Fold this protein.
Amino acid sequence: MKTILITGGAGFIGSHVVRLFVNKYPEYNIVNLDKLTYAGNLANLKDLEGKPNYEFVKADIVDSDAMLKLFGERQFDGVIHLAAESHVDRSISNPTEFVFTNVIGTVNLLNAARASWKDQPEGRLFYHISTDEVYGSLSNDGTMFTEETGYDPHSPYSASKASSDHFVRAYHDTFGLPALISNCSNNYGSFQFPEKLIPLFINNICNNKPLPVYGKGENIRDWLWVEDHARAIDVIFHRGKPGETYNIGGHNEWTNIDLIKLMCSIMDRKLGREAGTSEKLITYVKDRAGHDLRYAIDSSKLQKELDWVPSLQFEEGLEKTIDWYLQNEEWLQHVTSGDYQKYYENQYQKR
Ligand code: NAD
Ligand code: TYD
């Protein structure tokens, strides 16, 4: 029976990866390690409680001793590392936190894996989940990021992720640690903390609050349904080659303003509002500092070598996502009120 460590499993993407692995691989023990920061929410994984192949460990990856101890005790067969500080706006107001978790936390995990796998690295894998933002910003000329694009991060978030990617490659090249990386475009879907564009705007439209569009809304993002990202992670974890990098994306570019207008029209229909009502909430605000103009991922390597393709068209995925937030009003209320942070105390600490 293999034991797989997934870090950051109580967050947005991590919760989808944990759910996929626990349900699809009953022969694996899945250990979800998470510090439960503001972005970690065990209510995202309520459906897995009591499953015999699922375990939650509350820990901080910045605590090097705790990581060495855990890896010494558990002898993980594989690591899928998602834990991170992930919001660009927060990285602008508090960059240091991003260095601790994203850089030092990743190096702590690499050290712990290296120490625990030194006698038998074969058959193990350290899989680091990264972002397309490390490649910098594209102009509006149809070019895309490939695995060969040079790193050129601009925000403290992308700089910290770029640094962690370099450390993962350095541990592979210097110490022979079996490691690989994937870089994915913007994700959307259920269980995303409502400070990122799509869930924030769904919540604001529901509550008739302003929709703060940075700058002119002309920035372009390449959106991928989170469950397609989780499927790609599954494929890469099982069939990717150590030392390699795989780009993941949906070939689905939208200017922010077009995406926001589409969300407004879907929400008007779902909420029974007259067409055009929600668009009136759009408020242009000061642009984000260092705002990258355009991201676009070329994922042909993953498609050709590992046979992965996105399963959902964007309009369908967006409708599904909006439906999920409308049907899970309680989840949204708990997250926006902060009540979700009591969930761990109630469900886990009392045991
Ligand atoms: P998220 O912010 O929703 O979740 C991050 C999780 O990490 C949370 O559960 C949090 O509690 C945990 N965490 C934070 N600091 C920790 C620490 N010191 N120790 C242990 N756990 C800690 O993030 P997400 O959007 O799910 O992103 C997950 C990963 O995917 C990140 O590495 C991110 O860089 C990457 N990524 C995200 C996107 C996206 O669109 N969201 C796109 C590409 C790549
Ligand atoms: P975000 O969801 O924060 O993801 P990222 O910055 O990692 O791409 O933002 C997506 C885009 O939406 C980005 O161009 C910034 C913009 N944006 C707004 O215009 N208003 C907002 O309130 C937020 C959160 C984002």
User: Anything to note?
Assistant: The domain at 2-188+224-251+291-312 is CATH 3.40.50.720 (Rossmann fold).
